[in-house]
């Protein structure tokens, strides 16, 4: 059952190109949530019993056992996130309500995770929880405008070191020279060329609407059925 509560901003990490991570300390232990769920964040004060103020949804990037501190990551794209960039600072208070969402990776299947930009936060909690004994295949394709904006790559690298089940490939649209990133965007043709038995996995897509539309169309043209396609469509 979703709960509403205050949080204090304890830290803000600036990643460049107006991309930020925000660390939130709840006034009480946050309710239990599942990897892939999201929260609503409101900048204006909320009085219980009143209407909930204007808010936006953000994937919970932190792991489910980190309920004393919550992490979200966002890119400035519109009026609300512009307010976040201007108004949020360490020590200020916001309101959140959580948890919401059913974008839950089924760990009993072989899966392919397709993440664009801050959309990767829909997968970070799942990746954090992967054990060395995970019995199923996990493919991750993670892209951003530049290698520097693959801000959760260190987490992915750590997980790959302990989990042989995870196979990750990285993409960047620019500045790829001297890196191991593939140049350009994630494309269905590339995915099919790198995933063994591509019709046997379930695909999870999280990222900008244009990316979601292109990958959904491209995968469908290659025979991926709706039963094997899950989209993070709340944005």
List the keywords.
single chain, 235 residues, alpha/beta, Elongation Factor Tu (Ef-tu), domain 3, Rossmann fold, 2 domains, 6-stranded antiparallel β-sheet, 6-stranded parallel β-sheet, 5 helices, 12 strands, 32% strand, globular
Question: In words, what does this structure look like?
Answer:
The chain folds into 2 domains: 3-100, Elongation Factor Tu (Ef-tu), domain 3, CATH 2.40.30; 111-231, Rossmann fold. By secondary structure, it is an alpha/beta fold. The protein is globular, with a radius of gyration of 18 Å. The strands form 2 sheets. A 6-stranded antiparallel sheet has the order 4-3-6-1-2-5, with helices on one face. A 6-stranded parallel sheet has the order 10-9-8-7-11-12, sandwiched between helices. The model has no long low-confidence stretch (mean pLDDT 96). Helix content is 20%, strand content 32%. The longest helix is centred in the C-terminal third of the chain and has 13 residues, at 209-221. The chain has helices spanning 79-87, 121-128, 153-162, 188-194, 209-221; strands at 3-16, 19-26, 38-42, 55-59, 70-75, 93-100, 111-116, 138-144, 166-172, 182-183, 202-206, 229-231. It starts with a strand and ends with a strand. β7, α2 and β8 (138-144) form a beta-alpha-beta unit.
């Amino acid at each position: 059952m979703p709960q509403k509560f205050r949080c204090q901003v304890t830290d803000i990490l600036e990643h460049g190109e107006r991309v930020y991570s925000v660390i939130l300390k709840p006034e009480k232990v946050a309710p239990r949530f599942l990897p892939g769920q999201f929260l609503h964040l409101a900048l204006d004060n909320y009085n219980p019993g009143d209407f909930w103020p204007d808010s936006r949804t953000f994937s919970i990037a932190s792991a489910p056992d980190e309920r004393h501190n919550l992490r979200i990551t966002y890119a400035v794209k519109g009026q609300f996130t512009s307010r976040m960039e201007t108004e949020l600072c360490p020590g200020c208070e916001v309101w959140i309500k959580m948890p919401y969402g059913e974008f839950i990776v089924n760990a009993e299947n072989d899966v392919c995770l397709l993440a664009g930009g801050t959309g990767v936060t829909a997968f970070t909690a799942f990746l954090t929880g992967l054990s060395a004994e995970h019995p199923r295949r996990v493919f991750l394709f993670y892209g951003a405008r530049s290698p520097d904006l693959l801000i959760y790559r260190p987490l992915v690298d750590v997980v790959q070191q302990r989990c042989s089940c995870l196979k990750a490939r990285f993409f960047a649209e620019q500045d790829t020279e001297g890196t191991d990133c593939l140049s350009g965007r994630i494309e269905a043709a590339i995915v099919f060329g790198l995933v063994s038995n591509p019709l046997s996995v379930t695909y999870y897509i999280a990222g900008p609407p244009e990316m979601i539309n292109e990958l959904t169309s491209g995968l469908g043209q290659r025979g991926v059925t709706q039963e094997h396609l899950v989209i993070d469509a709340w944005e």
